[in-house]
Amino acid sequence: MGRNREAQVRRIVVVLSSLILTACQTAAPVAGVTDEQAFQMARTKLMANLKDPDSAKVDPVFVRKLGGLPGMKYDVICGRVNGKNSFGAYTGMQPFVYNLEVGEISTDASAVAILCS
After folding, report:
1. Could you read off the pLDDT of 50-109 as tens digits, one per residue?
2. Which H, E and C letters describe the chain, residue by residue?
3. Domain map of the chain by residue range?
């Protein structure tokens, strides 16, 4: 398995594990966090994870999702970002998901598909 694939699998495990840890919680918004605050938290975490945050183009449309999978509930922010890669080229709009419960962000397609669809 290549390094990129291992890193991708690791990210999926972290995101899904963080959701499992919140399984006992109800499908209610994180206490005291408004939608606007949640969007700002997601944006801040997203920028901290980009190679060139100053050049990032974040889609102004964010969606807050409250939901659940069998046995677990979650409160996440779904959005899209167009950032630059290591070569300085824009990658095109890429989806991301931010878990409000644990403060983790993922751009992994599988995590986004599960939590944001």
Report:
1. 889 999 999 999 999 987 766 677 899 999 999 998 898 999 999 999 999 889 999 999
2. CCHHHHHHHHHHHHHHHHHHHCCCCCCCCCCCCCHHHHHHHHHHHHHHCCCCHHHCEECCCCEEEEEEECCEEEEEEEEEEECECCCCCECCCEEEEEECCCCEEECCHHHHHHHHC
3. 3-116
